[in-house]
Hints:
The structure holds 2 protein chains of 2 kinds.
Chain A (H helix, E strand, L loop, with lengths): L1 E5 L2 E3 L7 E2 L3 E2 L5 E3 L1 H16 L4 E8 L4 H9 L4 E6 L6 H15 L2 E7 L10 H9 L3 E10 L3 E7 L5 E7 L2 E5 L11 H9 L2 E5 L11 E9 L7 E2 L4 H15 L4
Parallel strand pairs in A: 1-6, 1-8, 6-7, 7-13, 8-12, 9-12
Antiparallel strand pairs in A: 2-5, 3-4, 9-10, 10-11
Helix pairs in contact in A: 2-5, 3-4
Chain B lengths: L2 E6 L2 E2 L2 E2 L3 H8 L4 E7 L8 H5 L5 E6 L2 H4 L2 H14 L2 E7 L2 H14 L3 E5 L1 E3 L4 E6 L4 E8 L3 E5 L14 E6 L8 E5 L16 E5 L9 H11 L2 E4 L1 H5 L20 E5 L5 H7 L4 E6 L12 E4 L2 H13 L2
Parallel strand pairs in B: 1-4, 1-6, 4-5, 5-12, 6-11, 7-11, 14-15, 14-16, 16-17, 17-18
Antiparallel strand pairs in B: 2-3, 8-9, 9-10
The complex binds flavin-adenine dinucleotide (FAD).
Flavin-adenine dinucleotide (FAD) binds next to helix 7, helix 8, strand 17 and helix 9 of chain B.
Amino acid sequence: MQIYICVKHVPDSAAHITILDKNRIDESISFLLNPYDEHAVTEAAKIKNNTPDSEVIAVCLGKNDAEKTIRSALAMGADRGILITCDKNYDSMVTALALKAAIEQDGTPGLIFTGKESIDAEGMQTMFRIGAVFDFPVATNVVKLDIEVDKAVVDCELSGGITNTYEMSLPCVLGAGKGLNTPRYPTFPDVVKSKKKPVQKIVFTDLNIKDSPAGMRIVELEPLHQARQPKEIKGDAGFVAKEIIRILKQEAKVL
Amino acid sequence: MMKNIGVIIELDKGRVKETNFGMITLARAKDTQLFAFVMDADAKSVKEVLESFGITKIVEVWLAPDQLNNPVTRAKAMINAIKEFNISMVFGLSTAMGKDLLPRIAAHLFAPLVMDCFYVDLEQKIAKTYQYSGKTIATIQLTGEVLVFGIRPNAIEPVKAQEKAQMLKFDSSHIVATGFRVIKSGGIDKTTRINLAEADVIIAGGRGMKNSENFNILFQCAKKINAAVGASRVAVDAGWVPYSMQVGQTGEKVSPKVYIACGISGSIQHFAGMKTSGMIIAINTDENAAILSNCDYYVKADALEIIPTLTKILDNG
Ligand SMILES: Cc1cc2nc3c(=O)[nH]c(=O)nc-3n(C[C@H](O)[C@H](O)[C@H](O)COP(=O)(O)OP(=O)(O)OC[C@H]3O[C@@H](n4cnc5c(N)ncnc54)[C@H](O)[C@@H]3O)c2cc1C
């Protein structure tokens, strides 16, 4: 079985974001493999170990620098990578079409993984769009997965700790949630080995993705300014507690 | 031509959840028909309340109980309804249910979708949402025949606008989900009493809570002030509380009216999940904790002393 993992190269969550030209960010900051994708890679590697003749392929649509993210996926257990190189950022509709074109060129997916969301754009939809263009069933925020002969049984977490169990035919698309596993971070030998694994590069424009009238475009980015002016509440516990109650009642009007 | 706008109503035990009203307020516009799609209840029972917020057409999307449990049949029914009633803009909530429903709808219609919007301009077709862990506000231009918006719960103040609504039915009981079957639905985690994403007040604990038992202090207080209980990743990773309670970049993103942080330092990743809260109150023993310089009120004290005192005062009326 060929297992494809769609990975994204995203800014480190601790990085300072600077806005350029009103609608893009300064990308000379540290980027890494999207945290939720780590769970996807870990799960794919686990399935591979239990399934003879299977292969894990990390696919990424990104700029040249995104090869680093593919290398991280390779160090965590993927066998090889495909980088679709582009020089601008595309919306999730175009991304899904590009990923599909690259995957179809490469092989026959038995399973496709994504993370449940990317921590930069936080669009929460790429897995559904991949499913729609392939016409495969989709589940997201998957926290438990069993692969059987011709189906996948998944637990998906809704908020508040509610989980639903679904049975899906294969191939299917799964958005990995945090509860799925504990990512196995690469050891030094893993990193060394990953450098020798092949990464194929495809140029985005060679995939001939048709222009669509439907889409999403960022017209403006602005830093979120926090205008909070912290005020201290001083006094003994009794006084402080009463003051908090007063604030909840009179200012926030929630009591 | 008059435009048709649709809102997908989320119910809780047959009642319209409060957070729908802000969304409906946002979806109202001049010279439009405002459709409410109701899947989980007898539409007559919610007619009055929907009319009071300006809904002019109420569509009961009829599905059998087992179809209602299946996100694929729900999405397909909505896709058919959107086509049937010529809806050009679809609004839903960015709740757990919405996160599974809206992208399915948008993907099948090949329609643009912005999740977690806190502002939409229907005329310009732009939406505002947060990106980069809440560090930036993104203004996004949508283009297409159908546009889909996921609205962040609690982000918009509801305003009433009385209308009379026409009642319609849309039978979707013939729909089947191919390749996708529900085996079990539900399984509620009892420790999370009020849904975090929709709570008006959240009281959250971090490393400063020290152990799992001390979280009971927060639960007791939460009951008194009608709050949901959240946690930092440290508290979750330590196993004190389940992951479903985690607030932050890799947890739940919340915007309650009030967020009370107890023993939480205020890391970038924690802020990513709660920085849009109306008011932040921090209780922390360390005067250098980052959260103290980015909140509305703070107390330099032991949360394990302040919170029980607060609960006791409320107990005594
Ligand atoms: C990729 C990534 C994703 C992450 N995602 C998240 C996320 O989603 N959510 C999240 O929360 N974190 C996340 N983190 C972790 C984050 O960086 C912090 O480590 C974490 O938020 C710290 O939790 P804390 O505030 O409880 O603990 P600490 O930072 O240790 O702070 C504890 C605070 O409690 C105070 N304190 C101690 N005792 C008391 C007392 N008795 N009364 C009052 N105050 C007391 C201390 O002074 C201190 O300020 C993520 C990190 C990474 C790298």
